[in-house]
Amino acid sequence: MIYDSVIIGGGPAGLAAAVKLAEKGYEPVIIESRDRLGGIPLQCIHPGFGLHLFREDLTGPEYIYRFIDRVEELGVKYVLEAYVEEIVNYSMISKKVRITSPRGVEVVEGKTLIYAAGARERTRYEIGLPGPNAAGIYTAGEAQTMMDMYGVMPGKRVLILGSGDVGLIMARRFVLEGAEVVGVVEILSYPSGLVRNIVQCLEDYGIPLYLQHTVKEIRARNGRVSEAVITRVDENFKPIPGSEFTVDIDALILAVGLRPRVKLLKELGVRIDPNSHGPVVNDWLETMDAPGVFVAGNALMINDYADYASMQGYWAAESAIEYIENKGLPSTRWRRVVPGENTRLVVPQYLSGLRDAWLYLRVSTPLENARLVIPGLGREIPLIHALPSLQLRLMLRREEILRAGEEVVVEAVKD
Amino acid sequence: MTEELVITCIICPMGCRIRVLKKNGEVIAVKGYSCPRGREYAVQEATKPLRVLMTVIPCINGDLPVVSVKTNKPIPRDKLLEASKYLASVSVKAPVEIGDVIVENILGLGADIVATRPCRRVKN
Amino acid sequence: MRIVVIGAGITGLSIARVLTRYDNLEVVVVDKNPDVGWGVSKANTSIIHPCHEEDPDKHPLRTKLCLEGHDKWYEWTRELDIRVKWPGEIMAATSEEEIRVLEHYYELAIRNRVPGVRLLRGEELFRLEPTLNPEVIAGLYAPSAGTIDPIGACIALAENIVDNGGRLLLGRRVKGIRVGDYRVLGVETTGGFIQADLVVNAAGLYADEISRMAGISDYTIHPRRGQYLIYDRTVQPKPSRIIHSAPTQKTKGVYLVNTVGEVLLVGPTAEDLPSNMRDANYTTREGLEYVLKQAMKLIRKLPPRELVIRTYAGLRPEPSTGSFILRFHEDPWGFIEAAGIRSPGLTAAPGIAGYIEKLIREHVELKPREKWNPYRRDITRPKMLPATERNRLIRENPDYGRIICQCEGVSLGEVMEAVKRMKKIGVPEVTLDGLKFRAHIMVGRCQGTFCRPLTSFILQERLGLEIWSLKFNLEGSFYGVGRVKDLFKKPVEAGEK
User: Fold this and answer.
1) Chain C residue with minimal CA distance to B62?
2) Within an 8 Å CB–CB cutoff, is residue C457 touching chain B?
3) Same domain, yes or no, for A295 and A187?
4) C220 at the B interface (CB within 8 A)?
5) Helices and strands per DSSP (H, E), number in chain B
6) What ipTM was estimated for this complex?
7) In chain B, which residue's Cα lies nearest the Cα of A65?
8) Residue at B60 is within a domain
9) Which of C35, C171, C209, C212 is deepest in the core (most CB within 10 A)?
């Protein structure tokens, strides 16, 4: 059996891709690591999902069950509790995936592959937070799994390090379950999460947000975290002596960012963009180094909304269909997309000029009354209030792209 | 007496700081908004902020120990914790489907508690 | 007669294993921790040293036991199926002064009859280890160096001890040594009195306190802290040989080790701490920076900080005497010390065990057992098996096809086997660390973010325990603080809000 597409990951991106393929009469198979479809939204019990895709405000599980129900209706095949050991790019029209599951070891073959394996959270060790290895120190995602999948309280006096969205959302969850959140500490001068979450997760409950602060030291008692020393930092993120204060806690929750899970792609020889930390792809969301391997969702780049991940899933599925029909994508002269001034990342990294394309990007510093400029294309978009934490999205028309030379520079210019 | 409230608008990512002036509880002026929806939001926030409660409650014999729930309409913000606390005495038996009503008219606030995640029955 | 070994670390367990060979000895190991190897043995550099750093003039016994221990590890790791590899090591010099240090150790290698040691320069050196920093001007290559899974070794020894009729009493702190008529009579523990004819003190960091309980106070122990970083398995370049700096007057050697788990271990510091800081096994900014600075001199390119997956610190016991303390006391008779087991204690452990055995034989007639099982098999690791065998295993037990750790590809079957083996050696309750050290979950890139809650949930379903009440390790190290909404049920907590 050769599937039209092997989809790795049954979350917002993978499920959307599967639905799109099946609706168009193609036969995908989903490889999912957990014992159920859905991925991370299953544990995101807060609203804010579906605003872009369904024009409705849904919770994570409600959002993802729209896709799961559709997958079941369409009779899409899937393998649960399946671990991908290796991806082999056998030929243009054969991608072989070796998996282990309770069914045994097997090779699943597809004409294309859609990689939608999501992201992982950064840990305290990556950010260089020393101290004891004690109980009570968890990433926001692990705390969320504990609480909202398995009904376990991770702590009752909590400090949150980092102001990423999952951390903010967990701050509110802790308060609403009767715990105390002593504060959110952010090393930058601006929050990393969405404004809505700052307001509805922190301000609503009077939780202090310590900007330009960090946790300098943690201490443990009897095997569990007991104290954190918070300090103000200067513009080079160096602690300012004398600004320290200590808080008593029994849990430290880290919301210090996500990284695309790209290990399997790396093993396939796919280049990783140091800005997005995801694979280098073209405007079909196909990796530039492995034809017929498409990437969507948080494995591609960290998205602000599950909706965006699903939209990328649709995009990858449409690309896969084009690929299947033509046994590959057309040969073309690629235009490289380069993040310019004040721009942290742009995805996709290559444009063909053969199709319209969405650009996803982030600025690298907070900007007031600035303009997003793509000089080669003559495009300009006003940015009234732009933060690095806000993912921007814009559509480029094919005709515009054709005007560009070998490089398409995207930059944010202050007036 | 007059008071001024500063509301950070969440309607769009711009995050306008909207100033709402109240006199004896009545809104007398709104400044700093960029769109009508923002103005409406600021007035609502300044007078009667509403929120959807989301939490989890035990699901007996389910495939997961808890099922996620929410209020099917927003409730006053200052009632969130009380409602969550009330739910400490509530549990359900699997199976549960999305939208199942678990508590009707919680605390008389006019909102029902509904399930937002299915919970399959796995044990007896 | 009964012999009680205090301390279930690499030293105590090696001794206990050797003593299970005798018919007339009933071997009991006690430890304050609820599992084996949680003290000094847990956090060290994991090296089986070639022993050319031991000075036979200053420390003749230590040198002898290091050499014996090193060679015994060849057998023991096979018999007990302990993860080990023998990549050899390079002591690297970056200055003329350090070359003199290399030459000194080369001389010691000859004196100690350490095999195959060579002084290398230039092309030959870099062909042997291409990841070396180009600034390295010479290297002392010792091909007999190995790297082992130290806590895996403790677990293997414990299982072998139990297979041969020995017993482990874990989670019992020794409160006193009962002595009468100039002999040891037994050990008072938090779990009751244990009668003993012989008592071995292998209490690591706390050996001086145990000795004092028997009236011996001619030495003290202070902790020497070592801090380490671990890099992800995917980092490049990753040395294939063990690389370390030449120890000088000013600096101790820092090691780069591609461990048996295929991660890059960098460390340690050597910080002498006062005796009252025996629980200071935490890392510091300064310590980790020191390690990185030293390591940078050794390797062509140190991986970026982003790829550090864990940092940790261990405490090594430094005896005031500077040497291993290995004695059979006549007063109280039967009190035996295997104390002050500082570096190279891991290497020397089988040698120390042999030496203690000899000391006992000088005082007690020992009768060898007719049947003694030297073998122990490790947990089945499906990922090491060919596909056909793995399929057979999964058909018999689908848990071996349920991969719960996505980073390292560990199956639920391995976790459940770990649970079974913990029970077998007398671990009083399943801990997360116990599972980590046996099944190797929670050790990869994500450090358990995904697999810790999942494993805990499965254990709740299968063993009937509460997720939140699972401990990482120590008494207060609960995973959670209760169930969601429990905080509303306790009036004091709720009253605060």
Assistant:
1) C461
2) yes
3) no
4) no
5) 2, 10
6) 0.94
7) B117
8) yes
9) C35
One of 3.30.300.30, 1.25.40.10, 2.40.290.10, 3.50.50.60 is the CATH number of C1-83+146-220+320-378, namely 3.50.50.60
**B7, B69, B67: which is closest to B38 by C-alpha?**
B7
Strand pairing partners for A272? A279
Whether B10 sits inside 8 A of A195 (CB atoms) is yes
Range of the domain at A358: 333-415
Q: Does B94 touch chain A (CB under 8 A)?
A: no
CB of C448 within 8 Å of a chain A CB? The answer is: yes
Q: What is the pLDDT of residues A38-90, one digit of tens each?
A: 999 999 999 999 999 999 999 999 999 999 999 999 999 999 999 999 999 99
Range of the domain at B18: 2-47
DSSP reduced 3-state for A286: strand
Give A311 to chain B, closest Cα distance, Å.
19
Task: State both tokens at B26.
Answer: 């009545």
Cα(A186)–Cα(A163) distance, rounded to whole angstroms? Answer: 6
For the cut 50, the answer to whether the pLDDT of residue C495 exceeds it is no
Is the domain of B43 the same as that of B6? yes
Number of domains in chain A: 3
Instruction: At C286, list the tokens.
Output: 């300064």
Residue B123 lies in a domain: no
Q: C181 near C331, Cβ under 8 Å?
A: no
Residues 6+ apart with CB under 8 A from C180: none
- CB–CB contact B81 C497 (8 Å): yes
Q: What is the pLDDT of residue B26?
A: 86
Answer yes or no: do A96 and A215 share one domain: no
The Cα–Cα gap between A87 and A142 comes to: 28
Active-site annotation holds for C49: yes
How many A/C residue pairs have CB atoms within 8 Å? Answer: 168
CA distances from residue C451 to A117, A129, C99, C399, C410 in whole angstroms, order as listed: 16, 22, 47, 15, 10
Tell me the CATH number at B82. 3.10.530.10
What sign does the dihedral C261-C265-C270-C273 (CA atoms) show?
A: negative
List the one residue out of A263, A174, B113, A239 whose CA is nearest residue C487.
A174
Nearest to A32 by CA among A124, A102, A93: A102
Q: Is residue B88 part of a domain?
A: yes
DSSP H or E run through A337: strand A335-339
Residues in chain B within 8 Å Cβ distance of C484: 55-56, 66
| Tens digits of residue pLDDT in A201-258 | 999 999 999 999 999 999 999 999 999 999 999 999 999 999 999 999 999 999 999 9
Domain boundary among A299, A329, A359: A329
CATH superfamily of the C89-143+222-314 domain:
D-Amino Acid Oxidase, subunit A, domain 2 (3.30.9.10)
Total domains, chain B: 2
Chain C: residue whose CA lies nearest to B86: C488
A403 forms beta bridges with none
Answer yes or no: is B17 within a domain: yes
Closest to A205 (Cα-Cα) out of B82, B77, B4: B77
